[in-house]
Amino acid sequence: MGNVGSYTIRPYLRRRWDAVGRKFALPAESGARDDLRAWRRRATRKLRGLLGFGTMERAPLEPKITEELEFEDYTRQRVEIQTEPGVVMPMYVLIPKEYTPPYSAVIAAHGHGSAGKLGVAGVRATPELAESIDAYNWAYGLELVRAGFLTFCPDARGHGERREPDAGADIMSSSCEVINHAAHPLGQTVTGMWTWDIHRLIDYVELRPDSRANCIGCVGLSGGGLQTLWAAALDARIRCAVVSGYMYGYQESLLDMPGNCSCNYVPHLFEHVDMGDVGALIAPRPLLVETGTHDDLNGASGLENVRPQMKTIRTAYRLLGAEGLLRHHVFDGGHRWSGVEAIPWMVRHLAPGPTEASAGRRRWP
């Protein structure tokens, strides 16, 4: 009997990647804006298809505010919206008290181990969640509302209140694998569901009288970075984005590390694009990418697996004359939210509303 791993197929899969991978790569060699625009149209159409967008159904949002709590410097609403028929997304909406409406709005997407919206909104519901918040700096929703943004902290499908029944009692668990197993044979994906739901959340943001409909941003760490990357790439209503802990080459970080969560895996994705190609679709809107020097998800070569993806994105920004609107913040640390440059970046490009003092203490009723 051979040892475990003696007959691994990973070298074969790498060879297949080399043979069929990245058919929709950004056309960096031509250097023509027209080529970039044509590529964007083709890539967007293809990626929407891979995610399963054509199978999803719009439904009335039917927003409901189910709870409102007052804190020292913000108000927290619990809100529900319908993103597809019978599919409900709960969220927290954090409303700043020291600023006046209408506010610029930011969607703060969560990753794994944050108990969905709880960690991002700084709700330390259990000792385990409090430990996770401290380890990964999950509470960036609080950072954003305190910077003056109307902040939306949604539960992604399979997380928080949206976990499937077999997820158990652990609020930090998730149902990504269960959902993806059921969705793939139906032409759908968790990545597509998450992206669709963020886009429907934007529809809701645009309806709120306390938000600026043309000043919407999106940020997220890890799985929240995945949501931010895809949502911003496929919806230009996101005017500014921060992708944290989620920018690396697919081959080294997902093909060679297939133990990553199934939410990362979209059928036929590797055949068409690498992660930098998806990021390039965000150009020329402001984009900041955060990378920890010791983030294990970067892959075996670390930052050397990140830099080629940033180079691809930078090419798109250069072709569009917007190099100053792309920033790569590399910080000394692991897989966590930094925020040191991210929050100032959002303030700079989205300009939250004036303080109450400067606006005569006007309030939205």
Structure description:
The chain is of the alpha/beta class. The protein has 13 helices and 9 strands. Strands 1-2-3-5-4-6-7-8-9 form a 9-stranded mixed sheet, sandwiched between helices. Helix 7 (190-207) crosses helix 8. The longest helix has 19 residues, at 33-51. Residues 357-365 have low confidence and may be disordered.
Q: Radius of gyration, Cα only, in angstroms?
A: 20 Å
> Helix- and strand-based class?
alpha/beta
Low-confidence stretches: 357-365
For the secondary structure, the number of strands is: 9
Shape: globular
> In what range is the share of β-strand residues?
15-25%
Q: In sequence order, what are the helices and strands, one letter per element?
A: HHEEEEHHHEHHEHEHHHEHEH
How large is the count of helical segments? 13
For the termini, the CA-CA separation is: 73 Å
Percent of residues in helices comes to 25-40%
Main β-sheet, spatial strand arrangement:
1-2-3-5-4-6-7-8-9
Largest sheet: 9 strands, mixed
Overall mean pLDDT:
94
Topology readout:
Layout lengths: L9 H11 L12 H19 L12 E7 L3 E11 L2 E10 L6 E7 L7 H4 L6 H10 L3 H7 L3 E5 L21 H8 L6 H18 L3 E11 L1 H11 L4 E7 L5 H6 L13 H4 L2 H6 L6 E6 L14 H13 L6 E6 L10 H9 L15
Parallel strand pairs: 4-5, 4-6, 6-7, 7-8, 8-9
Antiparallel strand pairs: 1-2, 2-3, 3-5
Helix pairs in contact: 7-8
